[in-house]
Amino acid sequence: MEVVRADALSGVPHGFLGRRGGVSQGVVAGLNVGLGSADDPVAVAENRRRAGDAVLPGAALCGLFQIHSASVVRVLTAFRDDDRPRGDAMVTDRPGILLGIVTADCAPVLFADMAAGVIGAAHAGWKGALDGVTDATIAQMETLGAQAGRIVAAIGPCIARASYEVDMTFVERFAAADPANERFFAENRPGHARFDLEAYVAARLAAAGVRRVEALGLDTCAEPDRFFSYRRATQRGEADYGRQLSAIGLAG
Whole-model pTM? Predict the structure, then answer.
């Protein structure tokens, strides 16, 4: 099992996991933790157990029914996978709870204010990122005593600009929100561009007052042996795709 950790979050139990080390088979072979996949539920449950224990053994892994939104859930008590709320980010100040985000190209973002003992996790696809899911996560952390200037954040494996081709309607949507967003796009073939999701998320975090942002620079689409990728699975015409876990918790 591969667990990637960020220097910025040193001292806080966390990890960005990929597809290595799980029990799933077929096109989702490996550590598929996606409850929404067509994978064997028994395999997914075992993968989620393994992934959670690799980050914070014995903690209750809490996830969301992710909907590509800017909605943030404050987690006060652990909940089961079959009772997970809808949303795309979570915050907590409770020890023993592991906040888990699943992705397959979208950007997972883990947050911590170590002085306040407050953590957060966000699923930032292009829509959630544009709608402000990271800003909303920071705001919710502040209600628990965190301060934006003390928060550190790490952006885990996600689709990189070299792999992320979009059409001009997509570019125009971002430019309409802020003309400065054009800097996150690179020219490509006529009528298309390549989008740097990681850089966009990092810029949103910095603009919200986060002084230390670590971007891991790992491209999910380009490394099939390490990561699941929705875009890669779609390009290959595969019937399903796996999801990987990014998680952060507070030790008891």
Answer: 0.96
